[in-house]
Automatic annotation (TrEMBL), chains A, B, C:
GO CC annotation, single: plasma membrane
Entry protein name: Ammonium transporter AmtB-like domain-containing protein
Entries under Gene3D superfamilies matching the protein: Ammonium transporter AmtB like domains (1.10.3430.10)
Keyword hit for Transferase: no
Bilayer topology annotation: Multi-pass membrane protein
Length: 472, 472, 472
């Protein structure tokens, strides 16, 4: 009997190359029509510098933001990618599809965000520089979060569709929240994490698989896949201060955002460990919590990182998030799967959605509590951007705007996810059968035909069919 | 028979959460009372900038030090963490407990170091910025070094205690060496590595386990755990130039420290390979040496990295350390275990303690040999900080002070280690029995109950009980 | 029968330590005679700064280039190193020998490149700073590329010889291309990738092993070795913008090079996935393509990254390279092995040689098409360095010079590779027998003697002798 006999057709040989080619060619054409270098990345920079009395090349925005950009880039590709290698037989899909959709998403994000934020009305071109690259990576993060909820249950073509719509929704939502509502969201607690979390959860709800327990045998980790996942966890954890400070104001804004994030994350680790140990028999730690909940503090401090949250405020935010996120893994994820029909492979509800909402609330409170005594006159205007059309904003009103922004993020996430989920339910995308979920076999080339069949039974089953606690 | 029957109680379900919660709450309170942003990370930066005629935000210390900070951060969490994943069944504990104690330690370090170095006497607050974050990471490094000696033999609660006292001792020792004695130690050869090394060795001596050979079967690596450890090695090796230059003077100080460290490390690799090959049958290389001894040059060049060590001087330091460190693994570690009752899991004596002492000596010699001919008049004052109370220092006297600093580091390491070791011998910490050492089982949740018992014997034993040379 | 009985002597116990010691001592002497700090890394920087009216330490070249340097450093050691861990039993050799030859190579490169580019004629010394460190890492990259072709088939001593000659040839070739011919090659498409690729292929041709298929069983990956290789892939991919911008002009030059590379790489991922899926039965993806071909865009955009390639131009270059490189793995590598007697373990022809040539051609075209309308008057001079002896260059002529540079790189690669290949065929280097290829056993210490022989047969063979599809 052929091992590869499956009940559903997972052949993406036509659809995947077609989607990749068509979309990449579309990108080339749209970039050709719309995208140009901005004045800091074009050769006219020298003349621009002299004309504006800028004394040195070091004041090019590149030097303010490039180190942070590279850290964010690592978070997107290694951080998210390796965090998703924890499944015993889906490591290729975790890191590989993450790579694919991030590479596509950032191109589309440059266009979408460019139209909203970087369009030069004099010539109708989008002018890009390093800050656009960071924002494109941020935009992609929203979709990668959503991928976490459906990890192992969708085809790469579905992921491309999820990303195309996700980026589009993101750019619109971001424009509404940041520009129309004038909320501040440096680290994207609302714009990235809340949106991405609810977007993914809604999609997963639409794609509910009632009989998924059949392939439960693959929905776990082995020893070394958990160590691989720790690579992702640590790079996310370490570089989160760069994430939250990457696009904040030059000078004290970036400085303060990095400090606040550093502190919140440290605090989260301790409470995650505490709760993980407290709720297990014999006080043992659970790798799932260590891999995920330790990051919740970085999410929750995103909005307020650039504000005067104060060092102890950051610790408190991290403290609460470690507890809530870990309890989420213990109680809420099983509850959602059983009663709400939401299957959340990576637990993004605990790592992104809930901490994102907390981050939005913390941001609203911190903004409402701002005063000239704490920020200074210029500092207040500068931090909250009380300029131009928003010259008459007050901190209290700003707090209200922050809260409104949070609502928009949730609505876009839930609404967008339901619509996109409907599209993804069409039977044309080559998604795997329940039996094939969490398995690299349908989409990745194996050299499995060389295995002597006798040894196959003896060797391979105990290794990957059981949770395999002690393997190498 | 229950596989989990053990002679000693390793249940930390009460103690670990209790310690985490109590200490984290204490941190929040102390941060609330003491810690504030400094003028470069507060919104008053704009006004400060204008008042001090600083022309651009790029002169905020953030831009001088943040890239180095992030590199150091990677060394602490991925470098140290993955270096300790080499044991076949203790990878979770290696990277996970490293994560836990580093996240706790850096908070306590901000306070302890803050009281000594960053206290603003006008309002009694500690004012923090990016340099404090780097120093907190440095401080944590001392404790992670100590963890290397006791890896696999202690409970997480013991590690928290080790860290609490380690950070405290570090801050005092550092204040004495840098401020009272006025020794220079940019890369922490003395302050971090010598102290941390002897602190860990003394603790390990106090916790000597005469019957540990019983669990020898687990005190080794498997193929892929050695590859994981190489991740740690390489990130430490690559980012060591950032470590040694992170807090040196702006401009030439950081520049020179990075160059010297880069060169010393390159040289160490060659002599490590040479000695490793020379002392093995058939000239084969030993992964333990490649993972550890290649880093010794970075340790030894720490103190002198900012001085005019000269490029060839750096190569010579690296040359010697590669030889000494590798010979240490071959001869001294077994000797210490057999005759001195010091069990040193990671060989920190060869990687940190000895190279640290060499670094202190090299620093003393280089300082004593300094002259205005080599440094220039301003350069000499600037590099050695011959200002204020130390206006009349001469290079020769500075050399003496360096040597005195080294002695203080050794004393604090040995003395502190013995005291803390005594505390850790109390039978209340949930440490593992000899049989349970180097095993993740006591402290990490396994899904082991699902393994069909028959297959367990067949499958798992050869895989992890033997050194498993050829697995995947 | 002894498992370690081999037909060829792979004992390097004398030769490897001898080479390491002799060469390292030679480095120390040569560094002592020739290498000094430059004015930005010496303590005279303070006086230099004041004399030159440089307002701040931040204008030290260190702050322009150090973040990029560290990214490049990661690419060299983790990127190249882990990319070569994909073989099931040669991960130690992949990452370990990469480490060894890079650490040696960068010292020799500092000297060789220093003589050509950084010699201070006033005192006959080479003055080094951070840019020299980057260039040394670049120079090493050429040799690591060559290592990819012979991976698993040579001894460490042979690799040291390959590196010594490779660095020497590189420095001469680079001097001819950049200084005499005055071609521009910021990211080294020609100087690094074309040269390194053909150098490695020629050596592999000279070292052709007609009976190598005997050890084919080891020339493949296992599940987790492929995941390890993805660490290498991703760090190369993410940091490639830093590679191509590391030594370009301050300001817009670095900014533009980073943007172009970022875009080219994103585009490559999509076409690689498309072709990989299109050419496999059932549309499955092949890990070899994902690990390697996704990087081709970064290679091909190297020369033109600092030019006005335009964002869409970068996408087009990446688009083509993803296709060509993946097709290369499918058709050209097997063809070369069968008909041209070139065995290319990592497929460097597809990842470096072909994309490098494309990059040279793209660079020539982009340079020839340059105009003042696009670059501005000052921008054109600045970007192409039309100064001093080359004051009268025109873009068209520059295009010709670029093409000439490409030819020089190919000639040096092929010619140098043949000569060095001849040297490496001498029967004195301890290279492995065909049976021992792709096996860490000859050069790395195993604890294999402890395995109960009965279990050896049962356990280990299916695990590493078969392609082991489902292990952990």
């Amino acid at each position: 009997m052929d091992l590869c006999d499956r009940e559903k057709n997972t052949n993406v040989r036509i659809s995947l190359p077609a989607v990749c080619f068509v979309w990449q060619i579309a990108m080339i054409i749209l970039f050709g029509v719309f995208i140009r270098y901005n004045e800091e990345s074009s050769p006219f920079w020298i003349e621009h510098r002299k004309a504006n009395n800028i004394s040195s090349d070091i004041e090019n925005d590149f030097y303010f933001r490039y180190p942070s950009f590279q850290d964010v880039h690592v978070m997107i590709f290694v951080g998210f990618g390796f965090l998703m290698t924890f499944l015993k037989r889906y490591s290729f899909g975790g890191v590989g599809f993450n790579f694919l959709i991030a590479a596509f998403g950032l191109q589309w994000a440059l266009l979408m965000q460019g139209w909203f934020h970087s369009l030069d009305y004099s010539d109708g071109k989008i002018k890009i520089g390093v800050e656009n690259l960071i924002n494109a990576d941020f935009c992609v993060a929203g979709c990668l979060i959503a991928y976490g909820a459906v990890l192992g249950k969708v085809s790469p073509v579905q992921l491309m569709v999820l990303t195309l719509f996700g980026i589009t929704l993101f750019a619109v939502e971001e424009y509404i929240i940041l520009n129309l509502i004038h909320a501040r969201d440096a680290g994207g607690s609302m714009v990235i994490h809340t949106f991405g979390g609810y977007y993914g959860l809604s999609i997963s709800w639409m794609l509910y698989r009632p009989n998924l327990s059949q392939s439960n045998r693959l929905q776990g980790s082995v020893y070394h896949s958990d160590v691989f996942a720790m690579i992702g966890t640590l790079f996310l954890w370490m570089f989160w201060p760069s994430f939250n400070s990457a696009i904040t104001d030059h000078g004290d804004g970036q400085h303060r955002a990095a400090i606040n994030t550093y502190l919140a994350l440290a605090s989260t680790v301790l409470t995650t460990v505490a709760i993980s140990s407290l709720f297990q028999k014999h006080g043992k730690l659970d790798m799932v919590h260590i891999q995920n909940s330790t990051l919740a503090g970085g999410v929750a401090v995103g909005t307020a990182a650039e504000f005067m949250l104060m060092p102890y405020g950051s610790l408190i935010v991290g403290f609460c998030c470690g507890i809530i996120s870990t309890l989420g893994y213990i109680y809420i994820t099983p509850f959602m799967e059983k009663h709400l029909k939401i299957q959340d492979t990576c637990g993004i509800h605990n790592l992104h959605a809930m901490p994102g909402v907390i981050g939005g609330v913390v941001g609203a409170i911190t903004a409402a509590a701002a005063s000239e005594a704490v920020y200074g006159h210029e500092g207040l205007i500068n931090t909250f951007d009380f300029e131009d059309a928003f010259k008459n904003m007050t901190p209290t009103r700003q707090g209200g705007h922050q809260a409104a922004g949070l609502c928009v993020a949730i609505c876009f996430g839930v609404g967008g996810g339901i619509i996109v989920g409907c599209i993804l339910r069409l039977p044309i995308w080559g998604d795997p059968a329940d039996d094939n979920c969490f398995d690299d076999e349908p989409y990745w080339e194996w050299a499995c035909e060389h295995i002597p069949s006798g040894k196959m039974t003896i060797m391979s089953h105990p290794v990957w069919l059981t949770p395999a606690p002690i393997l190498t």
